[in-house]
Design brief:
The complex is a heterodimer of chains A (87) and B (425).
Chain A lengths: L2 H12 L6 H5 L18 H12 L5 H6 L3 H17 L1
Helix pairs in contact in A: 1-3, 1-5
Chain B lengths: L4 E9 L6 H10 L4 E3 L1 H5 L6 E3 L5 H5 L4 H5 L4 H16 L14 E7 L4 H12 L9 H6 L3 H10 L5 E2 L7 H14 L5 E8 L3 H9 L30 E9 H6 L6 E10 L13 H15 L8 E3 L8 H12 L8 E3 L2 H4 L6 H15 L1 E2 L10 H4 L12 E2 L4 E8 L3 E9 L4
Parallel strand pairs in B: 4-5, 4-6, 9-10, 9-13
Antiparallel strand pairs in B: 1-7, 1-8, 2-3, 6-7, 8-14, 11-12, 13-14
Helix pairs in contact in B: 5-8, 9-15, 12-13
Classes of the chains: A mainly alpha (87), B alpha/beta (425).
């Protein structure tokens, strides 16, 4: 799965957590979950759970703490997918 | 100076009606909301009937965002939010998305426990070593104050936001706590109410204590029998009731519809001393509570037109009547009308007091006394205490001026509220 595909999936995942329709429509690598999408920080753990389910990966606590924006999140998902493929 | 406190909005989510209009019609007609519960039967409950509000997904979705609905598994929060928001709208108040909260409005919305189904789900996840799968929705739905937190967020309340808990006295207590807050000038409007979850995990403990009836599984609507000779335990119920309490001056200033006035009341405990125990009321405390409520409200016993009793359909019903009789000290033939809503909706536990208060306020505002159902075979013990005419079995349409509502709960606790019809001076 390439970066664009990951972002596209991510967009579907975060959509229910944000009411910022314009920021959602223009989601890209630079989008920040809290500042741009105004997602309640308590919901970040729910987004991680949705990501785990969608991509069939497991995200450790250290990675989780970094997943505050699309860029970091995409990189972590890509790395986990790669690690899984290599197993 | 103390503020006068009036009721300007009502909302209800009861087993026999989930809108005010539906509920008002049901209580006048004596319609039972008790039904057979397949899940209780499957789980080998002794009592397989219960009262549960019927809500469509469409109705629920009018009160919660899609995100809130995603992992919502707390029936008590659903009932409480529906009753609470309906009461707010009924009071002619709008739900605005202002940046600033409404500093003068708050809520005391009681509960016995919150989100018991959600709690069970979370416990199972934890025991299955899946703690990380809990997500963010467990705490907000299982904290006791979940219901007041949800309501407050929706209404933008900026005054006291709290959940009281005092077993079956919770609903009546919430009204008195809210009343005090307005009376003393600390708030202008308070949403008072209480809620109670549905389902086997909330009702199971009562079933095991053998305080619920097991004799009417084949005839649910006849199962809840307050004051009947054949009363054999209560039928568990669930739901929520909500009342907007407001200072009279605020209600008049905004030309609000006024349903009635809270004249006062009393809350006390028997201390589990004398005849009082964890589960049985100390009669001296019950009588003191009633007498103190009258005194606090500044009325005489003879002025009471109707009593809305606690009357759960256990063997304690006669003791309750005796307590009222001893507290009021009226000649038997002057005993007020007395009714119990539990015949129609069962015992809605923490929500019972508030749902029953909504019924009481409707009686005052519209001038009727709802019928007692399932007591065609009136208890002989009760008949020896008060005349049968005090226990109406059919709807009475007549203006009433003062109504006394009491609720009693485990822990030997009592609450009594005195309501008065509001005459538009």
């Amino acid at each position: 799965m390439n970066k664009e595909q990951i972002i596209e999936n991510l967009k579907t995942i975060v959509q229910p957590y944000s009411e910022e329709t314009s920021a959602l429509a223009h989601i890209d690598e630079n989008t920040d979950f809290i500042n741009d999408l105004k997602i309640n920080s308590a919901n970040l753990v729910d987004i991680i759970l949705d990501i785990e389910e969608k991509f069939n990966i497991e995200i450790d606590n250290d990675s989780m703490a970094k997943m505050l924006n699309v860029k970091a999140t995409t990189e972590i998902i890509a790395a986990k997918l790669e690690a899984r493929a290599g197993q | 100076m103390d503020k006068r406190v009036v009721i300007t909005g009502l909302g209800v989510c009861a087993p026999n009606g989930t809108t005010l209009a539906e509920f008002s019609d049901a209580i006048k007609k004596g319609i039972s909301g008790i039904s057979h519960q397949p899940d209780l039967e499957a789980l080998n409950f002794s009592c397989q009937i219960a009262g549960k509000p019927e809500l469509s997904e469409e109705r629920i979705s009018q009160y919660f965002t899609p995100l809130e609905l995603r992992n919502l598994n707390s029936s008590g929060i659903v009932y409480g939010v529906i009753a609470g928001l309906d009461a707010w709208k009924d009071a002619g108040l709008t739900i605005e998305n202002n940046d600033e909260p409404d500093w003068d409005s708050g809520t005391i919305f009681g509960a016995g426990t919150s989100g018991i189904d959600k709690f069970r789900w979370a416990i199972n996840k934890i025991d299955d070593l899946e703690i990380r799968k809990l997500g963010s929705s467990v705490v907000i739905q299982t904290m006791a104050s979940g219901v007041s937190a949800f309501i407050s967020g929706k209404l933008g309340l900026g005054n006291q936001v709290s959940t009281n808990s005092s077993a079956c006295a919770t609903g009546a207590e919430s009204i008195l706590l809210a009343y005090e807050r307005i009376k003393t000038g600390q708030a202008t409007k308070m949403l008072a109410g209480s809620t109670s979850d549905s389902g086997p995990y909330i009702w199971g403990g009562f079933d095991a204590m053998k305080v619920c009836t097991f004799k009417h599984n084949h005839e649910p609507k006849k199962g809840s029998r307050p004051m009947s000779e054949t009363a054999s335990g209560f039928v568990p119920g669930s739901g929520a009731g909500a009342l907007v309490l407001e200072s009279l001056e605020s209600a008049l200033a905004r030309k609000a519809k006024i349903y009635g006035e809270v004249l006062g009341g009393n809350i006390n405990s028997g201390g589990q001393r004398g005849l009082g125990t964890m589960t049985a009321p100390n009669p001296i405390a019950v009588q003191r509570c009633i007498k103190a409520a009258l005194q606090n409200a500044g009325i005489q016993a003879a002025e009471i037109d109707v009593i809305n009793g606690h009357l759960t359909a256990t063997t304690k019903d006669a003791l309750e009547i005796e307590n009222w009789k001893d507290a009021l000290q009226l000649p038997a033939e002057r005993f007020p009308y007395i009714n119990s809503l539990k015949g129609m909706i069962g015992h809605c536990i923490a929500a019972s007091g508030s749902i029953e208060c909504v019924a009481s306020i409707l009686e005052l505002a519209e001038g009727f006394i709802f019928p007692n159902i399932n007591c065609e075979d009136l208890s002989a013990e009760i008949k020896a205490l008060i005349p049968e005419k005090s226990i109406p079995k059919t709807l009475i349409q007549q203006p009433i001026n003062i109504l006394a509502k009491a609720s009693f709960g485990f822990g030997d606790i009592n609450a009594c509220v005195i309501f008065k019809k509001y005459t538009h001076e």
